[in-house]
Amino acid sequence: MEIAVIGGGIAGLAAALRLRERLGPRAGITIFEQSARLGGKLRTDAFGEGYLEAGAESFLMRDPDGSPSPAAELVRRVGLGDAIRHPATSQAALAVDNALRPIPRGTLMGVPADPASLDGVARPDLDRDRDLGGPLLAPDEDMAVGALVRARFGDEVVDRLVDPLLGGVYAGRADDLSLATTVPALARAARVESTLAAAVRAAMAAGARSAARGAAGGARPVFGTIDGGLSRLVAAVAEAAGARVRLGLPVRSLSRAGGGWRLVVGSTRDPSTVDVDAVVLAVPARPAARLLSEVDRAAAEQVGVLDYASVALVRMAVPEPALPALSGLLVPAVEGYAVKALTIFSTKWDHLRRADGVALLRASVGRYGDTAVLQRTDSELITLARDELGRLLDTVLPEPVTADVVRWGGGLPQYQPGHLGRVAAVRAALAAHPTLAVAGAAYDGVGIPACVRSGEAAAEHLLDSLA
């Protein structure tokens, strides 16, 4: 049996490992990755005297039901359980009105259970959230997060609280992002409750009950990472999967060939064909849509709707700066800064703290629909980020001893309202091709656990079909 995994990010790697675990050593599994390395948005770079993440920095340890997340389970399955590290602090701040203010407690992705508790951060319109005699959402309805919260709590709650929290995850705007995809617990509660405050309280209570069940043996950390960097996880999963890895080879077309599939791979001048029994397609939406166009045009069109945001990460090693005891901060777009978020790695993670007092900072620049700032050169972005961080932190940041810029062009999917329906339509259309499965952030959410779950589910789908 020969199976192709197109895409060597964590979703594709998780699919390859699950296939190997279930099929054993005799199955032929090949990972095709267009770039020169595996891992996708998981990349650890040498930085100064140590290392720093170039993409994702951590993963959720628990699922919403309190059970270990797919990422935590994966880490342990590949023998890295002893390398898991947890944040030394999770206290972050919002930059509002030229001051750093604690992110209010009792919110769900910034949407408050008690809108009157936001003193100093936002002034909600308390008269809007009235019970009109029915649920906020119909059973299958979806809408933008911003549209719902603006209608119920007013603009400031969105602009100063919800937007920066969503932007920190998706680099997108609350007015564009799907409620059902980005805050699913709130969407479920909104289909029952008649006010937004009640829906937030219900969603948070359900989450607390699940967390309590999962923490029966005691409190557990929310986030984790790998000592030595997340590239260790990439390498460990690839080794455990035992797949053939073909780097620098784009897959140019995908078509039916007898009872299986034919891939055309390599350069346009020197392509080659590969025939396989089954395929996991774990690449971003646009290349996925291109490959699907020869298989199912309707599915390809649904996949191709998804848009992406581009971001730049400015990394700096700064000698002995005057910094607050925070893991980082978020900056609302209405504050007028290019920097939208800062992570203070050397404060957040004990294992990255340096004895010489050098702080490791990573500033995120770039919001969906606002790409002008990303046209600047690396040196210009470093200067801009250093200047803005100095103003945000009310200090003068010393000249960095090491600094660089990591650019992720089209790196973060923007889930517009109706995303889940489109994904369901794609998978329904592909039911006619049971030995082809799609996986990754284009369908099932951002974050390492979501991508791992998506890759494993795609593998299970193929296993069922092949059986």
Automatic annotation (TrEMBL):
<dbReference type="Pfam" id="PF01593">
    <property type="entry name" value="Amino_oxidase"/>
</dbReference>
<dbReference type="InterPro" id="IPR050464">
    <property type="entry name" value="Zeta_carotene_desat/Oxidored"/>
</dbReference>
<keyword id="KW-0274">FAD</keyword>
<keyword id="KW-0285">Flavoprotein</keyword>
<comment type="function">
    <text>Involved in coproporphyrin-dependent heme b biosynthesis. Catalyzes the oxidation of coproporphyrinogen III to coproporphyrin III.</text>
</comment>
<protein>
    <recommendedName>
        <fullName>Coproporphyrinogen III oxidase</fullName>
        <ecNumber>1.3.3.15</ecNumber>
    </recommendedName>
</protein>
<comment type="pathway">
    <text>Porphyrin-containing compound metabolism; protoheme biosynthesis.</text>
</comment>
<dbReference type="InterPro" id="IPR002937">
    <property type="entry name" value="Amino_oxidase"/>
</dbReference>
<keyword id="KW-0963">Cytoplasm</keyword>
<keyword id="KW-0350">Heme biosynthesis</keyword>
<dbReference type="InterPro" id="IPR036188">
    <property type="entry name" value="FAD/NAD-bd_sf"/>
</dbReference>
<comment type="similarity">
    <text>Belongs to the protoporphyrinogen/coproporphyrinogen oxidase family. Coproporphyrinogen III oxidase subfamily.</text>
</comment>
<keyword id="KW-0560">Oxidoreductase</keyword>
<feature type="domain" description="Amine oxidase">
    <location>
        <begin position="10"/>
        <end position="463"/>
    </location>
</feature>
<dbReference type="InterPro" id="IPR004572">
    <property type="entry name" value="Protoporphyrinogen_oxidase"/>
</dbReference>
